TrEMBL record:
It is found in: Cell junction, Gap junction; Cell membrane. Keywords: Cell junction, Cell membrane, Gap junction, Membrane, Transmembrane, Transmembrane helix. Residues 134-201 form the Connexin cysteine-rich domain. Belongs to the connexin family. Coiled coil: none annotated. It is a multi-pass membrane protein. The keyword Ribonucleoprotein does not apply. It holds the Pfam family Connexin. InterPro entries: Connexin, Connexin_CCC, Connexin_CS, Connexin_N, Connexin_N_sf. One gap junction consists of a cluster of closely packed pairs of transmembrane channels, the connexons, through which materials of low MW diffuse from one cell to a neighboring cell. The chain crosses the membrane at residues 21-39, 77-97, 118-143, 178-203. This is Gap junction protein. The lineage of its organism: Eukaryota, Metazoa, Chordata, Craniata, Vertebrata.
Length: 219
């Protein structure tokens, strides 16, 4: 999978972000994207081939694997990474709209098209809410699909066409568990960063509005 587009998107939106937003970009790029590409993807690369059951009944192993792993961990993380980064496009598109509007009318409508204020502030806040919501959605989805954040060493399966209850073994469960905890922890960290940036921008804007009203009253 090529991650060039996601990399360019993160680097592009970075210049419009606040300090907290830049930390979020660094966490996504360094601790999620690079870890995914460099290590996690290889660990789950042959998860189906290395899933073994203590019976060779045709179809039994495939049915058991599909039951316990309805969606591949690694594909779900890839989808999560893409989805939580996509709302950043809203900010990029809004800034591009501002710049194109100025070029089209040959006038200066904004002091700085990339400054987070006015309509761009609403767009930025919307992107933060979407990113936070998607992070939480994927964590809950993962928890529901796999009955918690854990990788068991042994699973028991009694689904047809298995003739009886069979034992199935997952390869490298400890190593997978470590990366699972790491990726869940970075996801939670991103949620905290998004909420912190959201609170910071709302507080900053509210304080700015209050000071404006206060100055008007004094005048």
């Amino acid at each position: 999978m090529s991650w060039a587009f996601l990399r360019d998107l993160l680097s592009g939106v970075n210049k419009y972000s606040t300090g907290i937003g830049r930390i979020w970009v660094a966490v996504v790029f360094l601790f999620r994207l690079l870890v995914y590409v460099a290590a996690a993807e290889n660990i789950w690369k042959h998860e189906h081939d290395e899933f073994e059951c203590n019976i060779k009944q045709p179809g039994c192993e495939n049915v058991c694997f599909d039951h316990f792993f309805p969606v591949s961990h690694i594909r779900l993380w890839a989808l999560q990474l893409i989805m939580v980064s996509t709302p950043s496009l809203l900010v990029v598109f809004h800034v591009a709209y501002r710049e194109n509007r100025e070029k089209h009318h040959n006038q200066k409508f904004y002091k700085n098209p990339g400054k987070i204020d006015g309509g761009l502030l609403c767009t930025y806040l919307t992107s933060l809410i979407l990113k936070t919501g998607l992070e939480i959605f994927f964590l809950v989805l993962f928890y529901k699909l796999y009955n918690g954040f854990k990788i068991p060493h042994l699973v028991k399966c009694d689904l047809k066409p298995c003739p009886n209850t069979v034992d199935c073994y997952i390869s490298k469960p400890t190593e997978k568990m470590i990366f699972l905890y790491f990726l869940v922890a970075t996801s939670c960290l991103c949620i905290v960063l998004n909420l912190s940036e959201l609170s910071y921008l709302i507080f900053k804007y509210s304080l700015k509005c209050y000071l404006r009203r206060h100055v008007k009253k004094q005048r």
